[in-house]
């Protein structure tokens, strides 16, 4: 046998800046033109956002003398997080003659960021990515950290890649056109960040909820910045989700299963809100979380008019348990949960892991308590 070693060491610096300011979108084209020199640009957006912002950004880049392909637009909604839509985006890029010197600009919410990010990760073996989020959920969560993913019949986000953006540009004024239900759904991820890492943020949300719902510009800028700092700190310490980053999955083990059971008719944040309430109750049953803390989480989500249980969804507990076994955190078919031990702190399992194996009986009890249907 002959052995040929291949010695490779990663020495790339994937650091980037998140810029947050009201009115920043108006400066986006000039900032990108300066940052990327002679690169070509393509804006990827969805049918809700493209008519509002994509044409203006593309036109401004052209005015600055940059090579810009026509915007690529796909139907809004979770159903577009698919291999079919990704292929269509790539085909459009090839037909436009785009090469490795391309910058993909993800202009939209979480679905746009996932699809455009995965395209950027794989097109020509990887091109630059810019995130310009237009939904609250994308601003505080999905545009940061480099996760991209598509849904398949077996579950959510099961195909994807880590691909960090070169820059994230956040303009809270873009939330002025966001549907109220989408705004509330984004607040679920805001509450999640507070529960996993920042009790003062939880108090800030409770105290300023009316102004936040009114989309007060100063409050939103502060809220978004605080959430970005939480997400950035976690990602810096654990980019590839080997341990700490898994705390960001609080509410998502159950939440993803709920989404799949409902055929994705619930918004992601709505499913995560219900998932957090189930998982907080599960943490209480395991002796990790005080009952009062679990009630505080549910009460804040209820004030946001988000789901706090599974009642009315007509989902069986057994089907949810089956789907949690397909979650990305599951090992050997056993689901794992990120669970809080207090508002602002996550519980650690034996060995220091932030995810816990859970007795199926306890999981079933928590699901039934929150309105899942018993098996017939």
UniProtKB/TrEMBL annotation:
Q: How is this protein named in the record?
A: 3-dehydroquinate synthase
Keyword flag Nucleotide-binding: yes
Tell me the ranges covered by the 3-dehydroquinate synthase C-terminal domain, including all copies.
186-330
Q: Which PANTHER family match?
A: 3-DEHYDROQUINATE SYNTHASE, 3-DEHYDROQUINATE SYNTHASE, CHLOROPLASTIC
Q: Which GO terms describe its biological process?
A: amino acid biosynthetic process; aromatic amino acid family biosynthetic process; chorismate biosynthetic process
Class of enzymatic activity (EC top level)? lyase
Q: How is the cofactor bound?
A: Binds 1 divalent metal cation per subunit. Can use either Co(2+) or Zn(2+).
Residue span(s) of domain 3-dehydroquinate synthase N-terminal:
72-184
Q: Any idea which UniProt keywords this protein has?
A: Amino-acid biosynthesis, Aromatic amino acid biosynthesis, Cobalt, Cytoplasm, Lyase, Metal-binding, NAD, Nucleotide-binding, Zinc
